């Protein structure tokens, strides 16, 4: 007869697995209750899917020109064809493939811009909030000055100096948007550092670096993730604005802002040249805002209780 032995390690794995399943089920219930969040996530995943599998969804190259078929209307209008459902632009380039390629540019700028901004803001805000006093004044002085400036004008000024490049746009948004994350992180740190577990760590002789990275920063992830979803949506708008002004990616790169700038000359007679890029921007931003609103409720139990 073989006796069963108790394995704490196996039991621990079972407990973690069960806990993870419970959390997924809990998130699914919260998402099902919030119809806006459900719709927002679906909209966002549609955009991500379209951006990732753009070359599979359509075989047309967004840069191929066909001047004979320039300014072809959408398929449901007279003169259109379902081979090019969104029509063509003034150079005969397929609008559908260009919209899908523009999603790649917008999501790339939004994701990496927010990643840089959140990382810089998290470190700066955590240091300023934890040490306070003169350190806080030295760090937050320039931060407050930047926040007092008109953001879009500030971005346009820097973009005009650096020139048109995808990397430049990402760095511009990442650096100029970091003060917002720093401000939020600082406010949260001022609250967290007065909590009992931080005071216990200080009493136990823990170093400042360990307290910041082990006890404070993990508690900042929730608020910053929520902020990141809204800022990513805003960056998509700002990137389109820069593209419309001719300060974003080069003109040969299909982006929604560039398409709006090119199509404004034909707005009266060939409305689809600006309608579809505008709808793409609105669809993406709306989905991210709805998903961010749901995510805020998930990460803040106080908001969940207030909505019950």
Defining key terms:
mainly alpha
Q: Structural class, please?
A: mainly alpha
What order do the helices and strands follow? HHHHHHHHHHHHHH
Radius of gyration based on Cα positions: 24 Å
Are there runs of 5+ residues with pLDDT below 50, and where? Answer: 1-18
* Separate helix tally: 14
- Calculate the terminal CA-CA distance, rounded to whole Å: 55 Å
Strand content: under 5%
Number of strands: 0
Q: Sheet bearing the most strands, described? A: none
How helical, in percent, are the residues? over 70%
Q: What coarse outline follows from CA principal-axis ratios? A: elongated
Q: Give the overall average pLDDT.
A: 83
Q: Can you walk through the features of this model?
A:
By secondary structure, the chain is mainly α. Helix content is 72%, strand content 0%. The protein is built from 14 helices and no strands. α2 packs across α4, α4 packs parallel to α7 and α6 runs antiparallel to α7. The longest helix is centred in the middle third of the chain and has 37 residues. The N and C termini lie far apart (55 Å). The N terminus is likely disordered.
């Amino acid at each position: 007869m073989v006796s069963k032995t108790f394995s704490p390690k196996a039991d621990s794995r079972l407990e973690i697995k069960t806990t993870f399943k419970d959390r997924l089920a809990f998130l699914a219930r919260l998402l099902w209750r919030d119809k806006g969040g459900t719709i927002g996530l679906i909209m966002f995943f549609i955009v991500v899917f379209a951006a990732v599998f753009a070359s599979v969804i359509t075989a047309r190259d967004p840069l191929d020109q066909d001047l004979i078929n320039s300014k072809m209307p959408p398929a449901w209008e007279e003169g259109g064809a379902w081979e090019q459902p969104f029509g063509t632009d003034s150079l005969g380039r397929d609008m559908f493939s260009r919209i899908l390629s523009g999603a790649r540019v917008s999501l790339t700028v939004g994701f990496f811009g927010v990643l840089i901004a959140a990382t810089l803001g998290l470190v700066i805000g955590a240091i300023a909030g934890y040490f306070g006093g003169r350190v806080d004044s030295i760090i937050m002085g320039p931060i407050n000055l930047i926040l007092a400036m008109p953001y879009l004008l500030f971005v346009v000024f820097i973009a005009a100096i650096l020139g048109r490049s995808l990397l430049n746009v990402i760095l511009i948004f990442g650096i100029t948007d970091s003060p917002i994350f720093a401000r939020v992180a600082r406010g949260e740190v001022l609250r967290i550092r007065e909590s009992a577990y931080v005071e216990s760590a200080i009493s136990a002789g823990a170093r400042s670096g360990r307290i910041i990275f082990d006890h404070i920063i993990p508690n900042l992830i929730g608020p910053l993730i929520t902020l990141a979803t809204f800022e990513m949506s805003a960056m998509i708008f700002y990137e389109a604005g820069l593209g419309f002004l001719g300060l974003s990616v080069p003109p040969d790169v299909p982006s929604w802002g560039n398409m709006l700038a090119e199509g404004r000359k034909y707005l009266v007679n060939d409305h689809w040249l600006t309608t579809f890029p505008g709808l793409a921007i609105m669809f993406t931003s709306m989905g991210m805002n709805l998903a961010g609103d749901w995510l805020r409720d998930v990460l803040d139990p106080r908001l969940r209780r207030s909505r019950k």
